[in-house]
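Working notes for the structural subgroup meeting. M.R. asked for a predicted model of this chain before we commit to crystallization trials. I am recording the input and output together here so anyone reviewing the notebook later can reproduce the run.

Input as submitted:
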Amino acid sequence: VAKRTVAKKAAARKPVVKGKVAKRKAAGKATLESVVAGLIRANGGKMSVQDILAAIDKGKLVKSKSGNFANVLRRTLSTSAILVSAGRGLYKVK
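Returned structure, recorded in C-alpha cell form:
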C-alpha cells in the first residue's frame, strides 16, 4: 500500500520548470556595436553621434523596431567597451 501512494504522489507532482535559457544571437547577424565600430574605422577614426545615426539610416545598416533608434544608439555608445568618447559628442574605437 505504501508503494502505491508514493507512486501516485510522484505522478501528481508538477515537473520543475527551470529559468528560461537565453536565446543565442543568430549567426551572421552583426551587433549594433560592431556596425558602429566598422563605420568609425571606415571614416577616419572619430565620428559624432549625429553622423553615425545618419550613416546607419542612409545605408540601412541596422534593423530595429525601436520607436526612437537614436536613444538605442546613445545607450550602446555609452555602455560599449570598444567604443569610447573622444570629446563632446564624438566617439572613437578603443
